[in-house]
Amino acid sequence: MDRDTITGTIGHPFSNPGLLRQALTHRSYGASHNERLEFLGDGVLNCVIAAELYHRFPQLPEGELSRLRASLVNQQSLFEIAQQIELGRHLLLGEGELKSGGARRPSMLADALEALIGAVFLDGGFEAARGLVLRLLEQPLKAIDPRAPGKDAKTLLQEFLQARRIPLPQYAVIATEGEAHEQTFRVECVIPELSIRTQGEGSSRRSAEQVAARRAYELGNPT
Asked: Is 38 among the residues known to form the active site?
């Protein structure tokens, strides 16, 4: 664990470095692990996102707000954010988890991210944790389109291509890692007509396809 790097990345210098170490410690490494911090961070994360959506979309009913929050706060989205800040290379894992690729496992990275939020909450209070959540989820929050209820990335990409008479994208699994019960899939999405080739990772083939599709959609439709 590189304390200076991770604190610089998240923008929070810990007064109590022990909280940061605990947040990044898996139970396979030691007794002072991150599961309680994960529980706390999950609550803080949901509260911050709920309040942010409430203020951003004053006309939306409760059901739509819940749907939007679920699209932001889930294992896959947290896994992607954890990947972006390279959280996996800071995790403290037991030997068995290291050998089995635990540092790349979606569930483990998502849990560690929530634990990190919980640690910042204990170290700096609610406003510090709120600031971290809004920084981490800045792009997903910007990308929310409440006018497209229920449409996932693959559907949006398909409709975008069909409207332009472009053949549907080609998806292919290019890598599978981890134990059979908890694998990580890497999928490629290719649209030759637009010279687009993207990749996505997820805990299932479907979730990885969704990530790759969203990246392809953003490249093809940057506005």
From this structure: no
